[in-house]
Specification:
- With 117 residues, the chain is an alpha/beta fold.
- It has a domain of 54 residues.
- 45% of the residues lie in helices and 21% in strands.
- The chain contains 5 helices and 5 strands.
- It has a 5-stranded parallel β-sheet with strand order 2-1-3-4-5, sandwiched between helices.
- Strand 3, helix 3 and strand 4 form a beta-alpha-beta unit.
- Helix 2 packs parallel to helix 3.
- It is globular, with a radius of gyration of 13 Å.
- The model has no long low-confidence stretch (mean pLDDT 95).
C-alpha cells in the first residue's frame, strides 16, 4: 500500500482527507512544515499533500527543503487562498502540482492516480 503524508494544521481538513484516502492508502499526518519535513525524512512517503499556510515552517519552505533530499517525490500543494500567482509560487517552490481547498475529491483522486499509478 502506498503511503501519503498529509501536512495540514487544521483538524477539519485532516479529517476530510483521511476520510477520502484511508481505504486505499497508508496515511501519515504532520501539523506543521517542520514536522512534515522530519516525517518525510524518517518515513519516506510515496507522496506528500502539503498545505501552503502552516505554522513554524510554511509549505513553501518545507517543500524546498524536501526537494533537496527527495528531488522526484510527488508533492501536491494545497491552499485555501486561490489567489492569482499562488499556484505558480507553489510550483516554483518545488511542488509537483497544486490544488485549491476545499479539495475536490474526484480531482484529488485523479491526481493521486496520476502520480502513484
Amino acid at each position: 500500500m502506498k503511503t501519503i503524508l498529509i501536512v495540514e494544521d487544521i483538524d477539519l481538513n485532516i479529517d476530510l482527507l483521511i476520510q477520502i484516502l484511508e481505504d486505499d492508502y497508508s496515511l501519515l499526518v504532520a501539523k506543521d512544515g517542520a514536522q512534515g519535513l522530519a516525517l518525510t525524512t524518517q518515513r519516506q512517503p510515496d507522496l506528500v499533500l502539503m498545505d501552503i499556510s502552516l505554522p513554524i515552517m510554511d509549505g513553501y519552505e518545507a517543500t524546498r527543503h524536501i526537494r533537496k533530499t527527495f528531488p522526484s517525490l510527488p508533492i501536491i500543494g494545497l491552499s485555501a487562498h486561490a489567489m492569482s500567482g499562488d499556484s505558480e509560487k507553489a510550483l516554483a517552490a518545488g511542488c509537483t502540482d497544486y490544488l485549491t481547498k476545499p479539495v475536490d475529491e474526484d480531482l484529488l483522486l485523479a491526481k493521486l492516480k496520476q502520480y502513484l499509478g
